[in-house]
């Protein structure tokens, strides 16, 4: 299979997931509006509603990270990068993946795994009365973050490799 096709498949995953979690944004607005109206208009508060806003917000950032990388909207310190040739940019992307992204994601995954598995073993729920009873699913988003960002990182490396091979011809 062609490396570009593999990159396309990985990017398709990031694109679909990013578009899916983007729908949480209007839901957050609606929920926050409802929370404020209920709280200040009717003196009614809901811990569960507040927690679901937190869950949606976290999902946007954690599961949307690969989408952000795919669209080159992540934070980049661009002091010299914009002046580089296409091949040099490809090398920077490859080195950035192997020296920064990959080790960081492995470290986060390794450190989060016991945290998440412990939560699943006890089916951890909210410590607040009236809170949501699936904190273990919420914590699993950390692992999803690592997987989605690594998948998009691999796609970036494959594209950069193709660019280097094309540029050296």
Automatic annotation (TrEMBL):
The keyword Acyltransferase is assigned to this record: no
Tripartite ATP-independent periplasmic transporters DctQ component domain mapped to chain residues: 28-160
Coiled-coil stretches noted in the UniProt entry, renumbered to this chain: none
UniProt-annotated location(s): Cell inner membrane
Membrane topology qualifier: Multi-pass membrane protein
Transmembrane segments: 21-40, 52-69, 90-113, 133-158
Source species, domain of life: Bacteria
Keyword check for Transport: yes
One Pfam family per UniProt: DctQ
Keywords in alphabetical order: Cell inner membrane, Cell membrane, Membrane, Transmembrane, Transmembrane helix, Transport
InterPro entries: DctQ, TRAP_DctQ
Chief location bin: membrane
Function, as annotated: Part of the tripartite ATP-independent periplasmic (TRAP) transport system.
Subunit structure: The complex comprises the extracytoplasmic solute receptor protein and the two transmembrane proteins.
Protein family membership: Belongs to the TRAP transporter small permease family.
Name of the protein: TRAP transporter small permease protein
